[in-house]
Specification:
Layout (H helix, E strand, L loop, with lengths): L2 E6 L1 H5 L3 H10 L3 E8 L3 H7 L9 H8 L4 E7 L3 H9 L12 H5 L8 E3 L3 H11 L8
Antiparallel strand pairs: 1-3, 1-4, 2-3
The structure holds adenosine-3',5'-cyclic-monophosphate (CMP).
Length: 138
């Protein structure tokens, strides 16, 4: 079964939206198979966002994602990666389609409420950063 890593980011945590975002994905028929609340440190943020380390927004992104506890989850299902990306909408909430999570909740391109894996390969790498095998319940 395909899996994706989902993060509920600080802007959504601050507004009490973790439950609504998880419920929305469950309502779309995706299965919640792992769940954790954690305060990411610089090292974890650097690993998770390694692909963006040369981008001009990297430092701000790490400062933001480490600013308060977040929720990390694994969702499983057929075509989970693409289904979750669709449900979330474009990275920039201003460009996200109506009815998507980021259109509904996102504030700006950085404070876009959620992260989701962009491919099944990256999903497996990202999941391994946040969860041990025994913490995922297929
Ligand atoms: P995410 O899906 O978590 O992946 C990388 C994150 O970097 C992205 O969501 C945004 O939070 C952030 N990001 C992407 N592009 C920009 C940008 N141009 N300026 C600021 N932050 C960005």
């Amino acid at each position: 079964m395909e899996r994706s890593l989902v993060l509920v980011k600080p802007d959504a945590m601050e507004r009490g939206l973790a439950g609504a975002i998880l419920a929305r994905l469950q309502g779309d028929g995706l299965k919640l198979t792992a769940l954790r609340m954690l305060h990411m440190d610089m090292a974890l943020a650097g690993r998770h966002y390694a692909i963006h380390k040369d981008k001009p927004f990297f430092k701000d992104l790490v400062d933001y994602i480490t600013s308060m506890p977040i929720v990390a989850a694994v969702f499983s299902g057929e075509g989970a990666v693409e289904r979750i990306r669709k449900a979330m909408g474009a990275t920039d909430p201003a460009r996200a389609a109506p009815g998507t999570i980021r259109q509904q909740y996102g504030l700006d391109i950085q404070r876009n409420s959620t992260h989701a894996s962009d491919s099944p390969e990256n999903a497996e790498k990202e999941i391994a950063i946040f969860f041990k095998k025994g913490e995922i319940f297929e």
